[in-house]
Amino acid sequence: PEAITVADLANRMAERGADLVKALFKMGMPVTLTQTIDQDTAELLVTEFGHNIKRVSESDIEIGISGDDDAPETMQPRSPVVTIMGHVDHGKTSLLDAIRGADVVAGEAGGITQHIGAYQVTLPDKSKISFLDTPGHEAFTEMRARGANVTDIVILVVAADDGLKPQTIEAINHTKAAGVPMIVAINKIDKPEAKPQKVREELLQHEVIVEQMGGDVQDVEVSAMQKTNLDKLLEAVHLQAEILELKANPDRNAEGTVIESKLDKGRGPLATVLIQRGTLKVGDVFVAGASSGKVRAMIDDKGKQVKEAGPSVPVEVLGLSAVPSAGDPFTVVDNEARAREVAAYRQGVLDKQRTTAAPVSLENMFASHA
Ligand code: GDP
Ligand code: MG
Q1: Looking at residue 228, what DSSP letter applies?
Q2: ipTM of this model?
Q3: pTM score
Q4: CA gap 6, 28 in Å, rounded
């Protein structure tokens, strides 16, 4: 129960995951971002990074935020969170739009949707899938480098008339490095010049072996434009999610990650938060990166006000003191004094980082995995 993943610890310390991995390696512990370390090691690492350990309660270290201490019996199934990646113009946006249009709930609501950086679709069997609506490798790289593992499954889009391109290969590398399972959507099959089999063969050269080639990576031929086989693609996601047995404890203070943020003239600082554990409620006091606040209202991806949001649900939060950054951890805390204290602490860390940290790049990400 006292174990915490390196990624989560990095998040709570507002340090880069890669730096923690490096430090652990020097301490003789070759672990990856997703592996867990025990409380003693975590404390050692916290000290190593020059942070003071302040025990808030018996089990809370440092910044006063709980680790992954949810007991197995508290865990409930949660929906998968999907990111779509691929080369420019291969159809990421078209696919996101088409999938969103296929949502039965959005259809019932009269198709009124709002862009909050993520959305959830409901399948005919009532199961849900969350999509991060901010395609782009940068967001993925940046968030992962900061230890925010928000994606459970990557859909790799490859245009069947164009084949593998530099950003496709980059996406494959990111996904592999993150240890996230992949589903390949071979897009634009409506085009006469589409060569889906050639795509499969090219993937093979990059060690992505799809089912049709005897591997275990699911591949689905789709047309985002003609909305062909979207159901098959969503079914593939559903199947992959079942294999992953994704779970979270919904009955605790909410924790999540900021997906998108902005300053709205009328409503002030806004953040779309993907809840990852616990349930966020109106009135909850929170810290989001170096800003803090109290949830004044929450709006879902259909533009509807909601009173609470559970694991895997993206929701726009009103009531922040300042605009946080994408990738910032979002954490509910017990009271406003605590929220201000954590926010101030994180601001201090950020100020320090700004003067010392190297920019996040692919190279130093991979270096940490070497
Ligand atoms: P992104 O850059 O990956 O987000 O790609 P877009 O979704 O913007 O699509 C790039 C271009 O490809 C646009 O002109 C789309 O209309 C077109 N496109 C996307 N999907 C399909 C498809 O399934 N079939 C055809 N024929 N064109 C498509
Ligand atoms: Mg696009």
Answers
A1: B
A2: 0.99
A3: 0.78
A4: 15
